[in-house]
Amino acid sequence: MIRRSPATALIALLVLVFLYAPLVVVIIYSFNTARYGAEWHGFTVDWYLRLIHNDPAIAATINTIELACTSTFFSVLLGSILAYGMSRYEFPFKRLFHHVLHVPVFIPDIVMAVALLLFFAVLRKWLAGFELGMTTMTLAHITFQIPFIAIVVRARMADCDPQLEEAAADLGAGPWLTFRHITFPLMVPGIVAGGLLAFTLSLDDFVVSFFTSGPGSTTLPILIYSSVKRGLTPDINAIASLIVIVSALTVVTVAWLRGRTEVKT
Amino acid sequence: MAEPTGQTAFKRRRRIRRTVHFGEPLPPGAHTFRAAWLCGPALVWVTMFMLVPLLFVVALSFAQRGDAGEIVWRFTWENYERLFGHGSLGFDPVQPLILARSLGVGFATAGLCLLIGLPVAFFIASLPRRWKSVALTLVVIPFWTNLLIRTYAWQLLLSPEGWLADILTTAGMIPAGTALYPGWPAVMVAMVCDYLPFMILPLYASVEKLDWLLAEAAADLGASPGRMFWHAVVPQIRPGMIAGGVLVFLPATGQFVIPDLLGGAKLALLGNAVQQQFGSSRDWPFGSAIAVVALLVMVAGLWLHTRVTNGRREVSLP
Amino acid sequence: MRIFLMLLALLGAGPAPAAEEFACKVTVDVYEDAESMLAKLQGGGTALYDLMVPPDHLVPTMVKLQLLTPLRRTNLPNFQNLDAKFTNPPYDRGNQFSVPYQWGTVGILVRPAPGKPVAETWGLVFDAKQQPGKFVLIDSVRDCLGAALKFKGHSLNSTEIPHLKEARDLVIEAKRRATGFDGSVGAKNKVVGKSAGAAIVYSGEAARAMTDDASLHYVIPREGSQMWVDNLCIPAKAPHRELAEKFINYVLDAKVGARLSNFLQFATPNAAARPFIKPEDLKNPAIYPPADVMAKLEFLEDLGAKTKLYDEAWTQVKAR
Prior knowledge:
The complex is a heterotrimer.
Chain A: H1 6-29, H2 46-51, H3 55-88, H4 94-106, H5 109-126, H6 134-159, H7 162-170, H8 175-204, H9 207-212, H10 220-230, H11 234-264
Helix pairs in contact in A: 1-11, 3-6, 3-8, 4-6, 6-8, 7-8
Chain B: H1 7-19, E1 20-21, E2 24-25, H2 28-60, E3 64-65, E4 71-72, H3 78-83, H4 94-126, H5 129-144, H6 147-158, H7 163-170, H8 184-208, H9 212-220, H10 225-253, H11 257-262, H12 270-278, H13 284-309
Helix pairs in contact in B: 2-13, 4-8, 4-10, 5-8, 6-8, 8-10, 9-10, 10-13, 12-13
Chain C: E1 2-8, H1 18-22, E2 25-31, H2 34-45, E3 51-52, H3 59-64, E4 68-69, E5 99-110, H4 123-126, E6 135-138, H5 141-151, H6 161-177, E7 180-182, H7 184-192, E8 198-202, H8 203-212, E9 217-219, E10 225-232, E11 234-235, H9 241-251, H10 254-264, H11 279-283, H12 291-294, E12 297-298, H13 307-319
Parallel strand pairs in C: 1-2, 1-3, 6-7, 6-8, 10-12
Antiparallel strand pairs in C: 4-11, 5-8, 5-9, 5-10
Helix pairs in contact in C: 5-6, 6-13, 7-8
């Protein structure tokens, strides 16, 4: 057992303040009446009410969610099957592919962004349909999501006791029945966690989206970036606060669900 | 983010699996066949949309920029010569400077995160089981919140009319109206704040598994607390330190948003240099050459990371 | 039906009234600097936008890169409304690809210290002794280096390496004292929001800032400055060429042109629109500079292969 010391407790508390100060400050400023700058002028909820009529913000929200849902759907499908295949079967060059999968995880966003920009530009010369927009953004997002899902699902599968499947087989279940009733249910928590991670990564992504987006496919991070660059921020504070709250609620829910399942097993 | 396979367990089972695989008899060839169907689509996808584009980048770094900013596919070393400082305005060490600065920022961020993250990891590991998950959730929430928003928030916090400036002015530490951003301190503060969770999580995973008997034995044998920590604790948590370090170092080196928003577009890192060449300068070949440098940094980090985490599991997110 | 506009930040809110009259949905993408807009167009924007607004010095490059569609004059009867001074410009002889839209200048927006006259010089940013507190530099290659060249008494279009080195070092030195680089709109908002005392901006931003806050002042430095013309152009593969031409013709209408200029507070190249421009804007020297100032203004030229020199100087400015 590790001894608790007041010094580490104090540092941990300060770190907590440090990590949460930015989140809290955005929420506080979203109630500020000032149009420009960071001076506190007074309390208002106007910026939230104005969001209802803010067409670019609404369009960006719809784009963001549509992009995150579509890309997460495909990446969960591809990534989970990949994780299953990689944790169950041996094949030539497996280690090489294993490293290849880590490339999108570690690559600097900006390098991935320009590589895809270039790739789509070259593709466009030969094939129609790679115009910058939702399609190219979805392709890009799926690419960086697949490895994260595969990693999370594989981690989950490594935790599962293979004897469960062997027992099912010994009891006469065929491969499909075994998968359907034993393996798949064991994978589900990993798939859910991986899917949520992928979904958040898509919501968060700014750099790759910025380079692969076209007109009419502006997402919230792109909108936030261009507004911050132009110094027009009151509406952005309100949007950002909503995003912060939704993200926090998601994490808490996931943690709570995990807590419940852990108690059960 | 995690290297998940129980490699050792796998190797132990390998002999059995050749004949009976998870209760199902399988000839060796069938492995490859099934794997091709299961792993094929995703691996082809990643190859097509990640590796092939990167090969294009490498190829483009040897091409030329035309007078109007178009790409001319004629082989040249010019872009790499420019990386070493040769240019039309004469020698200027600006590109090596950007690389050195990016690496410096990466190391500094990783170092600061390690310094701050260690006590936090120890503290979380010392908590009762129930509170551990609460603490981990608290660390994870900022990690799941948009990085752009957190970076922008530091603009608000550090602006001359912000509260932090007010407090410091009242305390007499800075003259009134001093802007705390844009500048290096602001960039570093945001970097550490944004990447700290990447350090705390793997560190915690290592600390959690720590064998305290070793430390106690060292203390019994008369080691000072410092020596005990260095010789009995650090070697045990080194994998977590390196994994966390790589996870912080790599994204920090390639950052483009933080220096842009908090450095006032004044302090260029590798990421900003790439963005500028692909953006307003419209020199894609030279931008590609800078991207290749960023890739090499990544490969080095990746190599270190796989060496350290091979066969080990880290904490999974969230 | 959709029509995409690709507009510079200079245009702010863009021509919103058009939507009703054309029964189409307008999407506007705003770029902070002209070169970034060109980069996006080159990176695959030609088939995505129906209309764009590049500044004069980029038009030749765009023509060379085959990014533009020729304009069919028969579809633009309102072309005759334009002031003869602005037609048949050196950057696009015969207005084959472009139609002038708004013009303006580059200068400094200052919040003067009470009771002190403002020195009309680039020294406000390039000379530490004259600096009025913190200031913002413009995040645009030619505008920023051009200002430095002017301060040193050189042409905006100088391609002499010593001149460029001088300008580069000047901007690097200024950058150490500045709060940073920003687009014109962002810079203006910093001055209005009081986080900076001065900023290099375009005339329209300055005029709008002064309408909001009368204590602000716009300076066109006596060393001379830049005059620019923004143009309406149609990208090479625009999906709705007819509609775009119809739209350009609409913008060239006297009353519509006046409404745009009254909103944007840039100067109009449209002779027929002048009677409808707000009289106080016509008298505003920040929008329509007097003749003696005009005489010191210079246009940016397309520098062809020498553009590279500016890009390198700019890379060094940004990285130091």
